[in-house]
Here is the input.
Amino acid sequence: MGAVLEPYIYEGGIHKHSLILELLEDLGGYLVQKTPASTEVTLVMLIPKKDVHLVEDLCKKLLGKLTSAPLTGTEVAVVSPTLASHHLPHSACDIAEYIRRGGANTNMIGLARGMGRRVALSADYERRLINEHDVAVFSFGTFKDCIINKKPKLFEGIEIPIVVTGGPDIRTEEISGADIYVGGIGRVAHRMRKGHELDAMDVMNEKVGEIVNLKRENIAKDPLAVLPARLMKEVQEQVPDILNVLTPAPITLQLDGMRIKLPYDRYHEAVGNIVFDEGFLLSDVANILPSKMKDYILVKIKRRSEVANI
Amino acid sequence: MEPLEIFTVETTEPSEAASYESILKDIISELAFSRTIGRIKVRIRPEDSLFMMVILLRRGLPPIKAGEISDTEFDREHAKVVITVRDEKTIPQFLDRLWEEFGRQNVMQPQRNIIEVASDIETVDKFIAELIVDDPEKTIRERLADMAIRATPEGFRIRYHSLDSGKFVFVASEDTMQQDWIDEANVMLKELEGDDS
Here is the structure.
């Protein structure tokens, strides 16, 4: 298997940033996402561990900033009980923004009927959509009673790790179904930028990072047949239509697969027929499924133990 | 009554009151309400799905009558009435009402603060004397409802409200409304009024 890859984010001027991309390719790293914004560019990359200093030196020369991004290659669902003004834009969008700074891709999911106490519930479709992600972050409100007694019914049927954010200080064990609870991020009607609010968000990123690491360790015990980052490169080369997709992350990496933002009906065969140097096809080593998000393609890569004969 | 001279939030868990107070303050400042509200008291019992809010408004501004902010004179040569408006802010509403009454083709605005109406002076004067061009109380009532809905915890869709001479009582829940709650809110209002009642 290849070298150990470390996730990093580069933020800097767009001028000469292609030098970084060339160096990355020479080193055998992967570009996960590139976001140009007028004269600035943000690159999310996976760099071989032993060569990080080379990229660091180049970034310094280009007067850009290279920071470690532990959540790179994960897709996080930020779930709020509804899309009403009680949750959006603050605090749910602030939470999503902060998680993105860690390198993750986030999707905001507002439940149709998640509001209130007695009446809160989630639909089967919503649960399946959330389960397509690596981690779900539920953003709740100010009241301890609601978070402990009423809201956990929204976790029913969620199989991925659940991070809960809310206002009061509560121990994680008190909330049934939650993997981690982060306090100090309750309902607010202003942008979260005060010291204690940002501290709470830092804690949240740390906790989400811990959960992601646990999941990574779990995967490392029985590794994936193909690295998602490598598969991403193959998709770009062998299904070139993906280069014409205009969404910010046409291929969204997950810990054990990816979401390819092409219509399932027209492209799932082309994706399944991607050939690897070793001679096998993608359909041999992965499940290619229709995603619950629009008509996209969801690829879940099988473990080595499942495809031992390849 | 000073603006926001009493601002109380009571919750079952005392530590949660401060964060709800911050939400209310944000909403009040967003809707530019801080000078309108004199006293406000909120009581929240999440275990009963209950939200109660009572507000005492400060004395509002009286409605603005068109006759008080404009002068009229008759232009004999062109057979039209010339209205000079002194309060610019009200001109859009003023024009709207004149268009409704006299028709668009008969009302012109050659300059920013001058409106010409092709009619006789008695008719125009009579119309203007009774015309209310701006009612700050009415806009406050609309914004107050907006504020109450924003401040309520989400999902509390069963609501009771009353506004009577600057006293606003609001109760919201997700369960059937109970008379006890409304009575309790009225007691809160009495407490808030204190010596002034």
